[in-house]
Amino acid sequence: MAVPAQECQRTLAGSPQEKTNTEMANIKPLGDKVVVQVLEAQAKTAGGIILPDSAKKKPTEGKVVAVGDGRTLDNGQRNKLSVKKGDKVLFSKYGGNEVTLDGKDYTILDEDQIYAILN
């Protein structure tokens, strides 16, 4: 029995999205923790000079890929986080813990180590 073309397109179109969801299903931050995918440091200066790895600045920008439920307050309620999945953020240069999952670099930060959301 032949499968209708529309069904094949839906199946193929859904595959990459499903993979993305399962990649981050491996990590769920707790409390006020935020998982940020680190953006690469620039390899070239504004004048065109190519920098070696030892001269590159430590990256301070990243994309939020997962957030916790928020810090538990003294009265038992949860304090919602200011950032959400998909936000591009500026964070503390030496803050957080660096981890590598599936060959990608991530940093797990406390919410207070994030300084700004970039537009």
Any overview of this molecule?
With 119 residues, the protein is α+β, with helices and mostly antiparallel strands. The chain has one domain: Roll (10 Kd Chaperonin, Protein Cpn10, Chain O), CATH 2.30.33.40. It is 17% helix and 32% strand. It contains one helix and eight strands, in the order αββββββββ. The strands form two sheets. It has a six-stranded antiparallel beta sheet, with no helix packed on it. A hairpin with a 5-residue loop joins strand 3 and strand 4 (78-79). The longest helix has 20 residues, at 5-24. It starts with a helix and ends with a strand. 13% of the residues are buried.
Write the layout of secondary structure elements.
Elements: H1 5-24, E1 33-38, E2 61-67, E3 71-72, E4 78-79, E5 88-91, E6 97-101, E7 104-110, E8 114-118
> What's the number of extended β-strand segments?
8
Q: How do the strands of the widest beta sheet line up side by side?
A: 6-7-1-2-5-8
Count of helical stretches: 1
Q: What distance lies between the first and last C-alpha atoms, to the nearest angstrom? A: 50 Å
Q: If you consult CATH, what is the topology?
A: 10 Kd Chaperonin, Protein Cpn10, Chain O
Give the rounded overall mean pLDDT.
77
Please, how many domains?
A: 1
